[in-house]
Amino acid sequence: MNLTPSAEPSAPCIDGASVDLSTELAGLSLPRPVLLASGTAMYGKEVSAFLDLSQTGAVITKSVLSRPWNGMPPVRGTTTPSGMLNCIGLQGEGIGTLLDEHLPWLREQGARTVVSIAGHSIDEYAEVAARIAAHPSAVETVELNISCPNVEDRNKVFSRDPETAAQVVAGVRAALPDVTLLAKLSPDVTDIVEIAHACVGAGADGLSLINTLMGAAINLRTLRPTLSGTFGGLSGPAIKPVAVRCIWQVHQAMPQVPILGGGGVRSGRDALELTLAGASALTIGTVNFEEPDAAARIAAELGDLLAERGISRYRDAIGLAHRAEAPTKETL
């Protein structure tokens, strides 16, 4: 059956509840493919009042630095017609509090976790990784947020340069030889495949695509930039086509590399679109602020959509759009 947007799915032979939504992301086994994106659920405590964290794919913790950091001054966020802008500035309590307080609590909830780390310099990434290495059983998967400002290089972003991106990955890999590493890339580059190759070549096990796009807003009352930092990260529905494009390009060039896809996902249809482009699992972010239990709804919708198309396993849909001819229900 043709899976183009104009095609109407035929009558399902299975139901959404029976679809196997389990997946694997660079060795991380997940019962469901929907994860909570870094920075949008903090460390899980607030959202746990609405969502059973043990039934969610995983919680990606807020990016942490080597020490507590205040972040940017207000105003740090604003809405847009199709999303939001933020310039939080990596505010957080630091790696020590994450290891000592938040990760033990998440384990008690039965939640799977991915630890997001950041740094203002290449050395700081290595320092955070070394702190994690001192707790060998605490962390299995790390997301490298290399899409944050590099204060050593005129506030450029690490992931915009293949050499610098590779240096960060290599430094963290040296400190954490047995931990799964996912490099989170920025779409604000000329060739994201080049950056992806550099990160994988330096030791990344998989890639997280995409981080926010750079944007700005002007306050018409003050006639000044709305955000204190002038520029902020654009997230929400507006960036989904960019996410689909980046995932498609990287999966096409590197089909063996696992991709954690994210960007504008707020429904099962969005989740399926990123999956068909090549994502092995998905993150949801902006939608969490308005619907803290969205992960459960999106996973259920995804199961129904797969069932309507006769696909009984989520894993069979990964990268399906890259095939010359999409299979019919009878051949799946």
Description:
By secondary structure, the chain is α/β, with parallel strands linked by helices. The protein is built from eight helices and 18 strands. Helix 6 (268-277) links the parallel strand 17 and strand 18. Helix 2 runs parallel beside helix 3, helix 3 packs parallel to helix 4 and helix 6 (268-277) crosses helix 8.
Question: How is the topology of this model organized?
Answer:
Layout (H helix, E strand, L loop, with lengths): L22 E3 L2 E3 L3 E3 L21 E3 L16 E4 L2 E4 L8 H14 L4 E5 L4 H12 L7 E5 L3 E2 L5 E2 L4 H14 L4 E5 L7 H10 L4 E4 L3 E4 L1 E2 L4 E2 L5 E5 L4 H14 L5 E4 L5 H10 L3 E4 L2 H4 L3 H15 L24
Parallel strand pairs: 3-4, 3-18, 4-7, 7-8, 8-11, 11-12, 12-17, 17-18
Antiparallel strand pairs: 1-2, 5-6, 6-16, 9-10, 13-16, 14-15
Helix pairs in contact: 2-3, 3-4, 5-6, 6-8
- The CATH class name reads Alpha Beta
User: N-to-C SSE series?
Assistant: EEEEEEHEHEEEHEHEEEEEHEHEHH
Number of domains: 1
CATH-defined fold name:
TIM Barrel
Please identify, by name, the CATH architecture: Alpha-Beta Barrel
Determine the CATH superfamily: Aldolase class I
Index terms:
four-stranded antiparallel β-sheet, 19% strand, alpha/beta, 332 residues, eight-stranded parallel beta barrel, TIM Barrel, disordered N terminus, globular, 8 helices
Short structural description:
28% of the residues lie in helices and 19% in strands. It has 332 residues and is of the alpha/beta class. The chain has an 8-stranded parallel β-barrel with strand order 3-4-7-8-11-12-17-18, surrounded by 7 helices. A 4-stranded antiparallel β-sheet has the order 5-6-16-13, with no helix packed on it.
